C-alpha cells in the first residue's frame, strides 16, 4: 500500500522547486494534494503535471484571507487535512548596514508570519495522526555574510517545530522541520546578483559539502514524505538535515 494512501495534504509553494517535487512524491504515494502559490500560470502547469489527485489554489501565505479561502475550500470538498508542508518562502541577500524595511518585512512576512498562519489555520481541520512539516534551512545553523534576515527567519521556523510540539502535546499531531542544504532553485537564482555569482556560489557550496555536491529537490521531497507518513510516527519536534553534511562539520 502507498505510504500516504488516502491522506489529504497541503503544500504551500507547491508550484516549483522542493514544493512541486514533494507534491509529485505525495501523489505517487497515494495522497490527495492541494498546492498553493502566488503565480497562477505556474500553478496551472504544476496541477496539469500532477494530474487529478492534485488541486491548485492561488494564494499568498502572508495574507491570512488567502489561507482562509484555501482551507474553506478544503473543508467543503474533503473536510479535513492530514498533512501540512509549510514550504513557501522567499530569500533576498543584503549585508548589515544595507538592510531596508522592505528587505526585512518581506522575508519575515512570508517566512515567519506565513508559516504561522499556514499552520494555525489548518489546525481546526487536523486531528490525531496529523503531520506538520516546516521547511527551515541550514542557514539557521550557519553565519554566512549577507544572509542575516533570511537566516533569522529560518531559525524561527526551526524553533516553531519545538514550541508547537509543546503547544500540541497530547493531540497526536506531530511537528517537525527539515533543513535543506544548498539546492539549486529559482530562489537562489533570484537572490544572486548575476549568473556568474550564482555559479560561483554553487561551486563553493559543493566544495565545502562532505558529499562534494549540491542536493536536489527530489532528495528533499523523499524526506518530507517520510515525515508525512506513519513511518515517522514517533518523531516530533525534530530537525532533519538534508544537506550532504554541510551544516554538520
UniProtKB/TrEMBL annotation:
PROSITE patterns: ADH_SHORT (PS00061). It comes from the Bacteria. Residues 7-181 form the Ketoreductase domain. InterPro entries: KR_dom, NAD(P)-bd_dom_sf, Sc_DH/Rdtase_CS, SDR_fam. Pfam families: adh_short_C2 (PF13561). CDD domains: SDR_c. Keywords: Oxidoreductase. One of its GO terms (molecular function) is oxidoreductase activity. Belongs to the short-chain dehydrogenases/reductases (SDR) family. This is NAD(P)-dependent dehydrogenase, short-chain alcohol dehydrogenase family.
Amino acid at each position: 500500500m502507498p505510504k500516504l494512501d488516502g491522506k489529504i495534504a497541503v503544500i504551500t509553494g507547491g508550484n516549483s522547486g522542493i514544493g512541486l517535487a514533494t507534491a509529485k512524491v505525495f501523489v505517487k504515494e497515494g495522497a490527495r494534494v492541494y498546492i498553493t502559490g502566488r503565480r497562477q500560470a505556474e500553478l496551472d502547469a504544476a496541477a496539469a503535471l500532477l494530474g487529478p489527485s492534485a488541486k491548485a489554489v492561488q494564494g499568498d501565505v502572508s495574507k491570512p484571507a488567502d489561507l482562509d479561502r484555501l482551507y474553506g475550500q478544503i473543508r467543503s470538498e474533503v473536510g479535513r487535512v492530514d498533512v501540512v508542508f509549510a514550504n513557501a518562502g522567499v530569500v533576498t541577500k543584503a549585508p548589515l548596514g544595507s538592510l531596508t524595511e522592505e528587505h526585512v518585512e518581506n522575508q519575515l512576512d512570508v517566512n515567519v508570519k506565513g508559516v504561522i498562519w499556514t499552520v494555525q489555520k489548518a489546525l481546526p481541520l487536523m486531528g490525531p495522526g496529523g503531520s506538520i512539516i516546516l521547511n527551515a534551512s541550514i542557514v539557521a545553523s550557519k553565519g554566512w555574510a549577507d544572509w542575516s534576515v533570511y537566516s533569522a527567519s529560518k531559525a524561527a521556523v526551526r524553533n516553531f517545530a519545538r514550541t508547537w510540539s509543546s503547544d500540541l502535546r497530547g493531540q497526536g499531531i506531530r511537528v517537525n522541520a527539515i533543513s535543506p542544504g544548498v539546492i539549486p532553485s529559482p530562489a537562489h537564482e533570484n537572490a544572486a546578483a548575476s549568473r556568474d555569482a550564482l555559479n560561483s556560489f554553487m561551486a563553493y557550496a559543493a566544495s565545502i559539502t562532505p558529499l562534494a555536491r549540491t542536493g536536489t529537490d527530489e532528495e528533499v521531497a523523499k524526506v518530507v514524505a517520510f515525515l508525512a507518513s506513519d513511518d515517522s510516527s514517533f518523531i516530533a519536534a525534530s530537525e532533519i538535515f538534508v544537506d550532504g553534511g554541510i551544516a554538520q562539520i
